[in-house]
Protein backbone atom coordinates (compact mmCIF):
# COMPACT_ATOMS: atom_id res chain seq x y z
CA UNK A 1 0.00 0.00 0.00
CA UNK A 2 2.85 2.30 0.92
CA UNK A 3 4.65 1.29 -2.23
CA UNK A 4 1.66 2.21 -4.39
CA UNK A 5 1.45 5.58 -2.72
CA UNK A 6 5.14 6.20 -3.40
CA UNK A 7 4.68 5.21 -7.05
CA UNK A 8 1.74 7.60 -7.42
CA UNK A 9 3.70 10.41 -5.80
CA UNK A 10 6.70 9.77 -8.05
CA UNK A 11 4.50 9.68 -11.14
CA UNK A 12 2.87 12.95 -10.15
CA UNK A 13 6.27 14.56 -9.61
CA UNK A 14 7.43 13.32 -12.98
CA UNK A 15 4.29 14.70 -14.63
CA UNK A 16 4.76 18.03 -12.85
CA UNK A 17 8.38 18.14 -13.96
CA UNK A 18 7.35 17.40 -17.53
CA UNK A 19 4.73 20.14 -17.40
CA UNK A 20 7.32 22.52 -15.92
CA UNK A 21 9.83 21.64 -18.60
CA UNK A 22 7.15 22.07 -21.25
CA UNK A 23 6.16 25.44 -19.77
CA UNK A 24 9.79 26.57 -19.66
CA UNK A 25 10.27 25.48 -23.24
CA UNK A 26 7.11 27.36 -24.23
CA UNK A 27 8.35 30.47 -22.42
CA UNK A 28 11.72 30.26 -24.17
CA UNK A 29 9.96 29.84 -27.52
CA UNK A 30 7.69 32.81 -26.83
CA UNK A 31 10.65 34.97 -25.81
CA UNK A 32 12.45 34.01 -29.01
CA UNK A 33 9.40 34.90 -31.08
CA UNK A 34 9.00 38.23 -29.30
CA UNK A 35 12.68 39.10 -29.75
CA UNK A 36 12.64 38.02 -33.40
CA UNK A 37 9.49 40.00 -34.04
CA UNK A 38 10.99 43.08 -32.43
CA UNK A 39 14.14 42.79 -34.49
CA UNK A 40 12.11 42.44 -37.68
CA UNK A 41 9.93 45.40 -36.73
CA UNK A 42 12.94 47.58 -35.96
CA UNK A 43 14.61 46.54 -39.21
CA UNK A 44 11.44 47.40 -41.11
CA UNK A 45 11.26 50.81 -39.46
CA UNK A 46 14.90 51.52 -40.24
CA UNK A 47 14.48 50.41 -43.84
CA UNK A 48 11.34 52.49 -44.17
CA UNK A 49 13.08 55.50 -42.71
CA UNK A 50 15.98 55.14 -45.13
CA UNK A 51 13.56 54.85 -48.04
CA UNK A 52 11.68 57.97 -46.93
CA UNK A 53 14.90 59.94 -46.51
CA UNK A 54 16.16 58.84 -49.91
CA UNK A 55 12.83 59.63 -51.50
CA UNK A 56 12.73 63.05 -49.89
CA UNK A 57 16.29 63.73 -50.98
CA UNK A 58 15.43 62.76 -54.53
CA UNK A 59 12.30 64.88 -54.47
CA UNK A 60 14.16 67.80 -52.92
CA UNK A 61 16.69 67.74 -55.72
CA UNK A 62 14.08 67.72 -58.48
CA UNK A 63 11.07 69.58 -57.15
CA UNK A 64 12.28 71.91 -54.44
CA UNK A 65 14.65 73.50 -56.85
CA UNK A 66 17.05 74.82 -54.28
CA UNK A 67 19.67 75.24 -56.98
CA UNK A 68 23.01 76.96 -56.75
CA UNK A 69 25.68 78.07 -59.16
CA UNK A 70 27.20 74.59 -59.02
CA UNK A 71 23.89 72.86 -59.68
CA UNK A 72 21.75 75.01 -61.96
CA UNK A 73 24.42 76.76 -63.99
CA UNK A 74 27.96 75.53 -63.50
CA UNK A 75 30.63 76.82 -65.82
CA UNK A 76 32.12 80.08 -67.05
CA UNK A 77 32.01 82.58 -69.89
CA UNK A 78 34.34 82.61 -72.87
CA UNK A 79 34.39 85.73 -75.04
CA UNK A 80 34.44 85.44 -78.80
CA UNK A 81 36.03 87.77 -81.32
CA UNK A 82 32.62 89.34 -81.91
CA UNK A 83 32.37 90.34 -78.24
CA UNK A 84 29.64 87.81 -77.43
CA UNK A 85 30.23 85.88 -74.22
CA UNK A 86 29.24 82.23 -74.44
CA UNK A 87 28.56 80.11 -71.37
CA UNK A 88 30.70 76.99 -71.29
CA UNK A 89 29.29 74.45 -68.89
CA UNK A 90 26.00 73.21 -67.51
CA UNK A 91 22.72 75.11 -67.80
CA UNK A 92 19.94 73.28 -65.99
CA UNK A 93 16.44 73.34 -67.44
CA UNK A 94 14.37 72.00 -64.54
CA UNK A 95 11.17 73.79 -63.52
CA UNK A 96 11.52 74.67 -59.84
CA UNK A 97 9.58 76.58 -57.18
CA UNK A 98 12.29 77.72 -54.77
CA UNK A 99 14.79 80.44 -55.47
CA UNK A 100 17.68 79.75 -57.83
CA UNK A 101 21.05 81.41 -57.24
CA UNK A 102 22.38 82.27 -60.68
CA UNK A 103 26.12 82.86 -61.12
CA UNK A 104 25.63 85.79 -63.53
CA UNK A 105 23.47 88.91 -63.61
CA UNK A 106 21.42 88.84 -65.71
CA UNK A 107 21.42 85.03 -65.89
CA UNK A 108 21.90 83.28 -69.23
CA UNK A 109 20.10 80.06 -68.32
CA UNK A 110 19.64 77.44 -65.65
CA UNK A 111 16.75 75.98 -63.66
CA UNK A 112 13.78 78.32 -63.68
CA UNK A 113 10.14 78.90 -62.84
CA UNK A 114 7.57 76.95 -64.83
CA UNK A 115 5.92 80.21 -65.99
CA UNK A 116 7.74 82.40 -68.51
CA UNK A 117 7.63 86.17 -68.86
CA UNK A 118 5.67 87.20 -71.93
CA UNK A 119 8.27 87.97 -74.56
CA UNK A 120 6.31 88.97 -77.64
CA UNK A 121 7.98 92.38 -77.84
CA UNK A 122 7.10 93.10 -74.22
CA UNK A 123 8.69 96.13 -72.53
CA UNK A 124 8.53 96.12 -68.73
CA UNK A 125 9.08 99.26 -66.71
CA UNK A 126 9.86 97.34 -63.52
CA UNK A 127 12.40 94.60 -62.88
CA UNK A 128 11.16 91.11 -63.68
CA UNK A 129 11.89 87.90 -61.80
CA UNK A 130 15.01 86.24 -63.19
CA UNK A 131 13.42 82.83 -62.84
CA UNK A 132 10.58 83.77 -65.21
CA UNK A 133 12.84 85.60 -67.65
CA UNK A 134 15.19 82.60 -67.91
CA UNK A 135 12.20 80.54 -69.02
CA UNK A 136 11.66 83.11 -71.79
CA UNK A 137 15.27 82.63 -72.85
CA UNK A 138 14.61 78.91 -73.05
CA UNK A 139 11.86 79.70 -75.57
CA UNK A 140 14.34 81.54 -77.76
CA UNK A 141 13.81 85.12 -76.60
CA UNK A 142 16.41 87.88 -76.41
CA UNK A 143 16.25 89.82 -73.15
CA UNK A 144 17.36 93.46 -73.09
CA UNK A 145 18.22 94.82 -69.64
CA UNK A 146 19.55 98.17 -68.45
CA UNK A 147 20.46 99.94 -65.24
CA UNK A 148 20.38 103.56 -64.09
CA UNK A 149 23.59 104.35 -66.01
CA UNK A 150 21.87 103.82 -69.37
CA UNK A 151 20.91 107.00 -71.22
CA UNK A 152 17.19 107.70 -71.40
CA UNK A 153 17.35 108.09 -75.18
CA UNK A 154 18.97 104.67 -75.54
CA UNK A 155 16.36 103.06 -73.30
CA UNK A 156 13.55 104.56 -75.36
CA UNK A 157 15.12 103.55 -78.69
CA UNK A 158 15.74 99.99 -77.50
CA UNK A 159 12.18 99.77 -76.19
CA UNK A 160 10.90 100.77 -79.63
CA UNK A 161 13.02 98.04 -81.25
CA UNK A 162 11.85 95.42 -78.78
CA UNK A 163 8.19 96.32 -79.29
CA UNK A 164 8.57 95.60 -83.00
CA UNK A 165 10.39 92.27 -82.50
CA UNK A 166 8.62 89.03 -81.49
CA UNK A 167 10.51 86.82 -79.04
CA UNK A 168 12.09 89.74 -77.21
CA UNK A 169 11.52 91.40 -73.86
CA UNK A 170 13.05 94.34 -72.04
CA UNK A 171 13.27 95.31 -68.37
CA UNK A 172 15.41 97.33 -65.93
CA UNK A 173 17.99 95.45 -63.85
CA UNK A 174 19.58 97.43 -61.06
CA UNK A 175 21.90 94.56 -60.15
CA UNK A 176 23.80 94.32 -63.43
CA UNK A 177 27.18 95.99 -63.73
CA UNK A 178 26.96 97.36 -67.28
CA UNK A 179 24.45 99.98 -68.49
CA UNK A 180 22.95 97.83 -71.28
CA UNK A 181 23.11 94.04 -71.63
CA UNK A 182 21.66 91.72 -74.28
CA UNK A 183 21.02 88.14 -73.21
CA UNK A 184 20.00 84.95 -74.96
CA UNK A 185 20.11 81.36 -73.68
CA UNK A 186 23.79 80.70 -73.01
CA UNK A 187 24.95 83.95 -74.63
CA UNK A 188 25.38 87.56 -73.55
CA UNK A 189 27.02 90.83 -74.54
CA UNK A 190 27.12 94.49 -73.59
CA UNK A 191 26.48 97.31 -76.06
CA UNK A 192 27.34 101.00 -75.97
CA UNK A 193 23.82 102.16 -76.79
CA UNK A 194 20.81 101.73 -79.03
CA UNK A 195 22.78 102.76 -82.14
CA UNK A 196 25.49 100.16 -81.54
CA UNK A 197 25.42 97.87 -84.64
CA UNK A 198 25.94 94.89 -82.34
CA UNK A 199 22.35 95.27 -81.17
CA UNK A 200 21.02 94.32 -84.60
CA UNK A 201 23.59 91.56 -84.99
CA UNK A 202 22.68 90.03 -81.64
CA UNK A 203 18.96 90.13 -82.41
CA UNK A 204 19.47 88.61 -85.85
CA UNK A 205 21.56 85.74 -84.52
CA UNK A 206 19.81 84.87 -81.28
CA UNK A 207 16.08 85.68 -81.62
CA UNK A 208 14.82 82.10 -82.04
CA UNK A 209 18.42 81.25 -82.89
CA UNK A 210 20.25 77.93 -82.96
CA UNK A 211 20.89 78.17 -79.21
CA UNK A 212 17.16 77.92 -78.41
CA UNK A 213 16.41 74.83 -76.24
CA UNK A 214 12.67 74.95 -77.12
CA UNK A 215 12.31 76.52 -80.58
CA UNK A 216 8.78 77.61 -81.40
CA UNK A 217 7.60 77.56 -77.78
CA UNK A 218 5.14 80.31 -76.88
CA UNK A 219 6.17 83.80 -75.84
CA UNK A 220 2.57 84.74 -74.95
CA UNK A 221 0.24 83.28 -72.35
CA UNK A 222 2.84 83.61 -69.61
CA UNK A 223 3.40 86.22 -66.92
CA UNK A 224 3.14 89.96 -67.47
CA UNK A 225 3.30 92.99 -65.18
TrEMBL record:
Organismal lineage: Bacteria, Bacillati, Actinomycetota, Actinomycetes, Kitasatosporales
Biological source species: Streptomyces humidus
Basic and acidic residues: compositionally biased ranges: 9-25
Secretion signal, residue range per the UniProt entry: none
Domain of life: Bacteria
Pfam short name (any one): DUF3105
Keywords: Membrane, Transmembrane, Transmembrane helix
Keyword Protease attributed: no
Annotated spans, Disordered: 1-25, 57-79
Low complexity bias (residue ranges): 64-76
Residues that span the membrane, as ranges: 32-53
Protein name: Membrane protein
